[in-house]
Amino acid sequence: MLDEATSHLDIESERSIQDSLHEFFESVTAIVIAHRLTTIMEMDRIVVMEGGRIVEEGSFPDLMRLPGGRFRELWKKQKI
C-alpha cells in the first residue's frame, strides 16, 4: 500500500518513481492512495471514494468517458 508516496516530489522525480513502481508492481496487486490524479492514470483499476463510499470505479479511460462523473470532474479541476 502506497499512501501519497510521491506527493512532495517534483513532476520529473514523481514520473521516474512511478515508472519504477509500475514495473515492480506489474504482476502483483498494489493499493495506491493519491490526491494527485496523474499518479494513478496508468493503474488497471481506479476506485473513487467519497464520504467513505465507492462512487465510481474503472480504468482511467472508462472514468473519463463518464459524463458528469466525479473522477472526470476532479481531473478537470486539477488540470486547470
TrEMBL record:
The record's section on InterPro entries has: P-loop_NTPase, Type_1_exporter
What superkingdom does the record give? Bacteria
Q: What is this protein called?
A: ABC transporter domain-containing protein
One of its GO biological process terms is: oligopeptide export from mitochondrion
Under the GO molecular function aspect, what terms does this record hold?
ABC-type oligopeptide transporter activity
Per the record, the coiled-coil ranges are none
Which taxonomic lineage does the organism of this UniProt entry have?
Bacteria, Candidatus Wildermuthiibacteriota
Originating species: Candidatus Wildermuthbacteria bacterium RIFCSPLOWO2_01_FULL_47_18
